[in-house]
């Protein structure tokens, strides 16, 4: 099964290299995406451009792929579910949740000169970055790609309620499945409150498990793909 990998803010597709290498022996084709404005050499891009890139990957995938979104890009994975509900086997959300319709995509930090640069480590002190040593922090910060303002401040538009039928797996790195369930029950994640099939998986890591726990994350993604395939076969059975 094809597994499309979408990194969060400031990340290019190369952040998934170790996960992709671990997925191949597990029988899956990993497709890391480099998003417009986040590693393709373009200085500017919009949220629509990034959505279009994700949809192009979905449309060119073999069979029904699993779409994986990390952090803010959980919203991109969910937008793929909204635009292509019949094409996705599942959406896997790593360390984040989808924004609701009408909300900004990722207007979290200061925008300067048309981009939102990596803000440094202060906002991420605590569980987010607890498993990153100083060398890993320097490397991640040095490779961080400023996010175009048109992406960060783009408005999320969700229109197809069939997205709620797409199976979802929430991977919980710096928070627990119990916390995630509570946030959903308390109305903080309205999109997942309406989803029909939501599973939760714990992963003992910080916010960037593709860097610190790539083998474990690959195993979780492979399990999600296997469950999605089993669900599809059961649905097709007479």
Describe, in plain words, how this protein is organized in 3D.
InterPro entries: AB_hydrolase_1, AB_hydrolase_fold, Sec-Metab_Biosynth_Hydrolase. One of its GO terms (molecular function) is catalytic activity. It comes from Streptomyces fuscichromogenes. This is Esterase. Residues 3-219 form the AB hydrolase-1 domain. With 238 residues, the protein is an alpha/beta fold. The chain has a single domain, classed as Rossmann fold, CATH 3.40.50. It is built from nine helices and eight strands. It has a six-stranded parallel beta sheet with strand order 2-1-3-4-7-8, with helices on both faces. It has a two-stranded antiparallel sheet with strand order 5-6. α1 (17-23) crosses α9 (214-236). The longest helix has 23 residues, at 214-236. The protein is globular, with a radius of gyration of 17 Å.
Give the structural class: alpha/beta
Q: How far apart are the first and last residues' alpha carbons, in Å?
A: 23 Å
| CATH uppermost class | Alpha Beta
CATH superfamily: Alpha/Beta hydrolase fold, catalytic domain
Helix content: 25-40%
Total count of domains: 1
Pfam family, one: Abhydrolase_6
Protein name: Esterase
Organism: Streptomyces fuscichromogenes
GO molecular function: catalytic activity
In short:
This protein is α/β, with parallel strands linked by helices. The chain is 36% helix and 14% strand. The protein has one domain (2-8, 15-236): 3-Layer(aba) Sandwich (Rossmann fold), CATH 3.40.50.1820.
